[in-house]
Known about the structure:
20 strands, Methylamine Dehydrogenase, Chain H, 4-stranded antiparallel β-sheet, mainly beta, 2% helix, Immunoglobulin-like, 1 helix, binds copper (II) ion
Amino acid sequence: VPGLRDPDETETSASLLLPPAQDQKVMILGGGGVGESKKSTPRTAVVDLKKGSPSFEDGPNLPQGTRYLNSVIMPDDSVFTTNGSEDYRGRSASNILKAQFYDPKGNAFREAASPKVGRNYHSEALLLPDGRVATFGSDPLFDDQQNTKLGHFEQRMEIFTPPALHKNGKNRPVLGEGPDVLDSKRRATFATEHPERVVNARLMRPSAVTHTTDVEQRSIELGLTKTKNSVTVDVPSDRALVPPGWYMLFVTDGEGTPSEAKWIQVR
Ligand SMILES: [Cu+2]
């Protein structure tokens, strides 16, 4: 696919299928030169695979050159992206204590609360079924700025609570009683006291993240119908778009406040 700026700096980059998966847009963020290179790039780029002859187009830059960035799709279709380092495996104390949300619709970043723990190589971030994000791991080459002391594996975890949960955490949309497998029409109905609050429904693949990369990550937009006390979701029939397996089902309100997930199986 042509059009990618800094094509020699894709090692240790992040990449993901942007939400919703139906849009078939792939994003790449940051990265560095091959091996122990000092080079890293703030470049992001997006390719729309639905176009006749797809090519990468530049997205907004990260705050600085970034390797080992972790990127997590959120239930509100934003992408939470955090941590990383500017140099190879955090060398010369180059961990980046920054996080931001990428909005695929606006093609822009907005700042998020900063992580407290630096993370580079062998680090991970994943979406929890309660709508928060856990970050963990990091495997720095050295523990000091002068690169004289051998590094130690980072054992502290952090949990990130997105802004909508800080604001509306005590008043989230709720998915009540419902099935844990789709019916023959690929639908599922859940009880809820306030169906009017439910604006979007997403099927989100549980994470399988390693080395900052989650190859399972995808979020599928669902059809939504309501009664006075229930919501019904419709799952697309395309098995390439929705590979069989277990998913987290999230609904969100008009402010992007997520419910807790219900686990549901797609056969
Ligand atoms: Cu490894």
